[in-house]
Amino acid sequence: MNVEHFQNILLDFSLIGRHDRVIVGVSGGPDSVALLSLLSKCDLDITLIPVYVDHCLRHQESKKEQDLVTDLANRYKLHHEIISIDVRGYQTDHHTSLEESARILRYRALENQRQKHNGDCIAVGHTADDQVEEFFLRLLRGSGAKGLSGMAMKSGNVVRPFLTTTKKDLLEYLHTTGIKYCLDSSNTDLSILRNRVRHELLPLLEKRYNPSLRRTVLQTGEILQGDDYFLDIIVHQRINECFRTHSPTSLSLLVGEIDLVHFLGQDLAIQRRMLEKIIWKCGSRPSFHHIEEIITTASQGRNGTELHLPKGLRLVKSKALLQFLGPLQQHDRRCSSLSFQLDPVAVDCNQRHFFPELGRELHLQKQNQPVSKMTEQTIVLDNNKISWPLFVRSPAPGERFSPKGMRGTKKISRFLTDLKIPRPERFQHPVLVSNEAITAVLGLRADNAFAPDQSTREWLVVSWSPLSQEK
């Protein structure tokens, strides 16, 4: 590896441009130290900001690594940052592995520094050897072609200039230039899967099966990346044909829906990729099991079938649609919304009543003049027609009311259907009851018998809104 070859990689793959501001993740290990050194020698007039992320796991080694990064920054006359992250705390809170917790927090810290310094990108030192290890890690954990294609040289704000360079080449460069680096003792810990792949699995496969294994894997990854790019173009077109996004409102959690006729007409491989990308768009990360379950539901499930996905996302089959609904504001409810029942709760005037299981709060307020401004969350009743106390409860099966502005009565279930309220959201619209009579379906409509008219002298404003952030 030399500076000219390295600079050509940056320009040929459009990784870093002239005059860019680059956050450089520097751990003190040979890969990241070589990265900082080569970047500092490029004739691109770039601004470098080395960032050391302390995982707070190896206190003695971390101090040596920090000192090394500080010395390098001073040698190259660069401003640098040292950031600490709580990996074990994150692992405890989110039930992730130590390695995954470190990765998530490390990239989060680097992105924060990019934003702080108005950087154009984040450069990290992953090598061709890391790419091979990642292939086998993903293979062992279960992954499709996209995962097995490996890390990209440019992914969002992150660039990996060394993905075609071996660790051996980088060590030779450091030896030739006399640049010091640190060795991470955790890299020899065989309790970590990556280390077992590096020190046990790969040497065994190279010795007994294929001496050129690393080159073969890299070539396979390159082929898979090309295939993945082509399939992504097709999948993007199919998604545009059959998926509609929605903006959630105070009255609807619907974030998107798939036209089943179009979806079921696709090849199974395309269906899987479509679902993966659509669910990512909806803010969740599906497993293979989730995707297979959705495909089965799409083709064989009954209307009203509800599935729960990570991050509180829910999926409901509704006639010719698959509907995706976001989580309640402050709750990740795992029970089925289709079977949820709210027992009667007494409510008083001029108080806020909280219904966390519904993600809503109720506020009843009397006033002596008509309401001039109303929101979609507000209903107004004639207070003199009401018998206190009022109760909030789920509507009974087949229960009817007389929607304001309509003649006669209508089943509440039919009323919700006519308003196109998705079935899994209907539990969020209980009824407000006065002396066993329904006065309103909360958040939607008053009953004619309790609606204000020309004789009204006292109004009751009923606000049914999402739980406030302070609660």
Written account of the structure:
The chain has helices at residues 3-12, 30-41, 59-75, 87-94, 98-116, 128-141, 145-148, 167-177, 193-208, 213-242, 260-264, 268-281, 288-300, 412-418; strands at residues 21-25, 47-54, 81-84, 121-123, 154-155, 158-159, 243-245, 254-259, 306-308, 314-318, 321-325, 345-347, 352-355, 360-367, 378-382, 390-393, 400-401, 410-411, 431-434, 437-441, 445-446, 459-466. The chain is of the alpha+beta class. A hairpin with a 3-residue loop joins strand 20 (437-441) and strand 21. Helix 6 (128-141) packs across helix 9 (193-208), helix 6 crosses helix 10 (213-242) and helix 10 (213-242) crosses helix 12 (268-281). The radius of gyration is 30 Å and the shape is elongated.
Q: Overall 3D geometry?
A: elongated
Would you count the extended β strands for me? 22
The CATH superfamily of the largest domain bears the name HUPs
Helix content: 25-40%
> CATH topology of the largest domain, what is it called?
Rossmann fold
Straight-line distance between termini: 58 Å
The CATH level-2 architecture of the largest domain is identified as: 3-Layer(aba) Sandwich
Task: Provide the structure class.
Answer: alpha+beta
Low-confidence stretches: 329-335
Enumerate how many helices there are, as a single number.
Answer: 14
Number of domains: 3
On the 0 to 100 scale, the average pLDDT is: 88
Largest sheet: 6 strands, mixed
Supply the CATH class of the largest domain: Alpha Beta
